[in-house]
Design a protein that fits this description.
single chain, 340 residues, alpha+beta, 4-stranded antiparallel beta sheet, 16 strands, elongated
Length: 340
Amino acid sequence: MSPPTPRLRRALLVLTTALAALLCALAPLPAAPAAAAPDRDGPAGWTARPAGGGADRDARPYVYLEGTPGTALQDRLAVTNSGRAPLTVRLRGDGRAGAWIGFAADTVTVPARTRAEVPLALTVPADAVPGDASGEVVADDGDEEIRVPVRVRIGGPTLAALTVEDVEISGDTIRYALVNRGNAMLEPRLAVRADGMFGTLLDRPERPLPLELAPGRRVERTEPWPDAPALDAVTVRLRVTAPGGARDEAEASATYLPVAPVVGGGLLVLGGLALLGYGAYRRRRARRGDPEPPAATETGGTETGGAEPPGAGPADDGQPTTETRPLVKAGPLVKAGAES
């Protein structure tokens, strides 16, 4: 079979590349693992929580303070040792507001079956921006740690600003990011809508999200879509709001195609185009009357009309043949008998 022409080879290469790109685009991206939530229950045998919350541990779930820039705010942390041996914990602050905290003692030893209250002071920087700030108090016994949230409201004008960014559609999951662009603590609310070629596919009304977004914080989240279409072109719109007038919208588009039929159909089309191209190539050669390439001999050369193989003679047609011999030069004739 004759090799394909350069034009046919380029066409086949383009078709193969397009099919590979389509398969890569349809391959579902692996889902990102969900972030583990911090363990605030702490180890068995001791606890740490804001003091003065009463017997119910949820009565005061975090330290909450209010003040203006430059002021010092006071509170206490209660560490309870319910074990049978003394407990030693180290205290430190973490996060923006945590860096403003100082303790009466950074290391505290609590006797067995005893509760100790540790005074703490939070000094709001003089150049702090009005709004909300957050952080944590961390109690660590060397093996386990407990984190107590800290919320600070800084007096002055506040700005609530929220954006939704990086919206992506991956199979049955919608990914997006929320960013607090203001100086106030936000509790976002989310509404989701998806429209396809023939109408609305998804319409989830606005609902609160289970998170508090501190100023400057960015959180990546996912929205499940278990009944996503198998074949459609969709546009997903996300709308987020928060108290204080914060509001933003973003959208993303995606095309859903069943992978197996597309792969099989693409291979079938590719094979059909290759056969059609080869048939057109043979017909074009036949119309031009191009000779077929010479056939190769058993020794790898080509047949010629010249020399014959050694030992081969002319064909025998039944007629007598005359043998040709080399001429021999004769010497002078000598006449036999007597001279006359």
